Amino acid sequence: MFWKSLLFAALLAHDVSAQGSSGFLRFGCSQLVVERIDPLVNPGVNPSPHTHQIVGGNSFNVTMDPYTIDPPAQSTCTSCIYTEDKSNYWTASVYFQSPENGTFKRVPQMANGRLNGTLLEQEGGLTVYYMRPFSGKNMTTTAFKPGFRMLAGDPTLRSKTGSYPGICHRCLAASERTMGGNGAPCDSKDTASFPSKPCLGGIRITVIFPSCWDGKNVDSPDHRSHVAYSPGSSALAGDKCPSTHPVRIPQVMYEIMFDTTQFNNPDYWKDGKQPLVYSFGDATGYGAHGDYLFGWKDNALQRGMDALGNKCGSEDCTSVLKIQAGKDAIACTKSQQAKEDVGTDTCTYGRPHCWNTANIYFRA
Ligand SMILES: *[C@@H]1O[C@H](CO)[C@@H](O)[C@H](O)[C@H]1NC(C)=O
Ligand SMILES: *[C@@H]1O[C@H](CO)[C@@H](O)[C@H](O)[C@H]1NC(C)=O
Ligand SMILES: *[C@@H]1O[C@H](CO)[C@@H](O)[C@H](O)[C@H]1NC(C)=O
Ligand SMILES: *[C@@H]1O[C@H](CO)[C@@H](O)[C@H](O)[C@H]1NC(C)=O
């Protein structure tokens, strides 16, 4: 039922008539920085074990103590379109490992047409969703508390377990390259592993976070157990939350697009092999995961969620939330704190530094 309504909204989302008829807020964020820093899993560690691609508020830092940081106050800009959102969103980078000589090259990200056409001129970034469940009626959600953070997925997984059904890869057809493909995320077209064949339109990675919270802890030792998926086989929110995690929170989802097309040589994709590997050393894709660190100003997220379907449509909540121009979001970048060459879009042209023989970005 939820998906019926969400799908309907997604199909309509680019139509002006869709305003006021959707169950999620969706917006784009451009790249803030690519570096080996992870204030959630490895606070204080510089460099952290592996590379990440990070978007959001520029108060992103090596250490972000939940009780003392204040991203809305400490950020002077955000790479996301809604300016009150100083949260940070990050995922692991993806590398191509040459089957010929074993060296690595970072796979460029590409913009997603779902960024509402505002951030298309940049290479990286991701699309963020804050979703509201539907179950016979539209369910209310309780926005996160200051300091809240969580992790979705399990970086140690190397086989299919069903533990994290909402984390998947879609092999895009050439025609889907710009918009990233339609339909429900993590449906039968998607795989928990990396795709097993070359993807003419690149790869879209989807990370769906849990939708229920224990109501007490802004974090937990594994960064996961203070939140839970609603019961059932799908990661997507129903209206039910388990008694251990009774508070329904907005369900966060990321979409990240990778331009894998320069690696589509069929020789790299045969005999059951594929050449991609996550920066944490996972060549299966099952360990895909995402990190979230809440940082909306005051009650802005709550206001946006509560106005869904009324003053807010999925792509346009500008009557309730402040928005900036795409170029201003793109201008919000941060210099690396873990200084090293992680490769850039210029790597596409094969500059020697783009190939890492030392494997320095890969430590699980
Ligand atoms: C990052 O943390 C360091 C050390 O606590 C601090 O000096 C610096 O101002 C912080 N940077 C930002 C952007 O908050
Ligand atoms: C390694 O192989 C890739 C192609 O798979 C090639 O582009 C690159 O130049 C090679 N690097 C070295 C150091 O041979
Ligand atoms: C749920 O909200 C959507 C807009 O988000 C609206 O179109 C729909 O009528 C609502 N459904 C119910 C049953 O309230
Ligand atoms: C998305 O595009 C619509 C139509 O151009 C515009 O009204 C709206 O403000 C945009 N929203 C975002 C989040 O960029």
Task: Give the tags.
single chain, 364 residues, mainly beta, 7-stranded antiparallel beta sheet, 5-stranded antiparallel beta sheet, 18 strands, disordered N terminus, disordered C terminus, binds 2-acetamido-2-deoxy-beta-D-glucopyranose, DUF1996 domain-containing protein, DUF1996, signal
Q: What does this entry look like structurally?
A:
Residues 1-18 form the signal peptide. Residues 38-296 form the DUF1996 domain. Keywords: Signal. InterPro entries: DUF1996 (IPR018535). Pfam families: DUF1996. It is a single chain. By secondary structure, the chain is mainly β. The protein has one domain (3-363). It is 8% helix and 20% strand. The protein is built from four helices and 18 strands. The strands form four sheets. Strands 1, 7, 8, 10, 11, 12 and 16 form a seven-stranded antiparallel beta sheet that branches. Strands 2-3-4-18-9 form a five-stranded antiparallel beta sheet, with no helix packed on it. Strands 6-5-17 form a three-stranded antiparallel beta sheet, with no helix packed on it. A hairpin with a 6-residue loop joins strand 5 (94-97) and strand 6 (104-106). The protein is globular. It starts with a helix and ends in a 33-residue tail after the last helix. Residues 1-21 and 344-364 have low confidence and may be disordered. One 2-acetamido-2-deoxy-beta-D-glucopyranose binds at residues 21-23, 137-138, 308-309.
